[in-house]
Amino acid sequence: MSNQNSQINKKKQSLLQKTDSVSELAKEELPSISIVVPNYNGEKTIGKALQSLVDQGYPSLEVVVVDGGSSDRSVEIIQAFAPYISWWVSEKDNGQSSAINKGFSHCTGEVVNWLCSDDTLTPRALHTVGEYFARDPDLDVLLGGCNNINLHKDNESYVRYASQKSVDLMPAASGAVAQPSCFYRRALLNRAQPIDESYHYAMDFELWNHFKSQNAKWQCIKDVLSVATQDGMNKSSTGGEKVTFELERVYKNYSKERIPLTFWHRRLRYPLERFIGNHPSRIWLYFVGPVWIGITLLLSLFYGFDRAWIMRWKRWA
User: Fold this and answer.
1) How many CA atoms lie within 13 A of 287 on its CB side?
2) DSSP character for 171?
3) CA angle at residue 180 from 28 to 70, to 5 degrees?
4) CA trace torsion 141, 144, 150, 155 (10° rounding)
5) Smallest Cα–Cα separation from 36: which of 118, 114, 126?
6) Judging by beta carbons within 10 Å of its beta carbon (0-12, 13-18, 19+), is residue 281 exposed, middle or buried?
7) 257 neighbors 172 (Cβ within 8 angstroms)
8) SS3 of residue 14 by DSSP
9) Tell me: the pLDDT tens digits for 85-134?
């Protein structure tokens, strides 16, 4: 029995040695990654966000922090992580889009992303990202899953995955990409403002459509790369109808339709969706639901069923 255990232990040690050697080899091949962390008065969460980056143990990681002149303890927390940060600043800016652009201007990594100060990366997420980009030199954009946690709903959570079909349906599919789980080649940020600063809510969605317009190669994976928290005070939660106006602007700019599908949605579907939202009683669904479906089917004749169906922005309408 002891001889059998000895043989098992030797096999385990041999396997570990092989794994270690593969990891060492991979370190030399993994691309450098830059992560921008925009923050404003995020003392409650920025420590966790930065710690999730430190804990990655990624061999070639560049962390850039852009603080918008916080009045809380954010700067103190950022300074505590200074040994792990390549560059950081705390000064008044023109909002999140401006902060991200400022951070991108200091990035040198081959692969980039930004991580909001209330989000985190899952353990070894960057190793997964690096390995995919290392294996495929032609890969431009990698989309992973994101675990969304609603703090204002008893920590209710769900994992959001991207699919190639939803990417193909952009700009109709506004929920195609989970921002903290989207990584891309820095070479794609090839315009004067990588993030269009005229957008306050949909700047990430506009960026994805810019990538698509460049015929970028996308890959969707089932690995959960990030955790995003919603506390009811996030911009996407409080923006309301202002979010839809920005989504519509992205759609018009990238769809090039003579009469954009959004024109009909705002005038036909949004009123019905608002009515249903304000009258949650199931009985109204029997009356309004068929009308909503009928409108969708009618629009499908001209714009295609998938496009008409997936444009469901009722959470903001």
Assistant:
1) 9
2) T
3) 105
4) -160
5) 114
6) exposed
7) no
8) helix
9) 999 999 999 999 999 999 999 999 999 999 999 999 999 999 999 999 99
Paired sense of beta strands 218-230 and 141-150, if any: parallel
Closest by alpha carbon to 208, among 234, 175, 252, 243? 175
What pTM was estimated for this model as a whole? 0.86
For residue 241, give the amino acid letter.
E
- Residue 270 has, within 13 A of its CA and on its CB side, a CA count of 15
> What digits encode the pLDDT tens for the residues 242-282?
899 999 999 999 998 999 999 999 999 888 888 888 887 88
Domain assignments of the chain as residue spans, ordered by start: 31-238, 257-310
Cβ-contact 55, 82 below 8 angstroms: no
- Report how far residue 92's alpha carbon sits from residue 69's, in angstroms, rounded to the nearest whole number: 5
Given a contact cutoff of 8 angstroms between Cβ atoms, the answer to whether 112 and 184 are in contact is: yes
Q: Which two tokens stand for residue 34?
A: 């830059």
Cβ atoms of residues 77 and 47 within 8 Å: yes
* Cβ contact 64:86 at 8 Å: yes
Number of helices (H), then strands (E), belonging to the chain: the values are 13, 9
CATH of domain 31-238: 3.90.550.10
Interacting residues of 83 by C-beta distance below 8 A, sequence separation 6+: none
Tokens of 87: 């560059």
The CB density around residue 314, as the number of other CB atoms within 10 Å, is 16
* 251 C-beta neighbours (distance < 10 Å), count: 24
User: Which residue bears the tokens 């997936």?
Assistant: 310
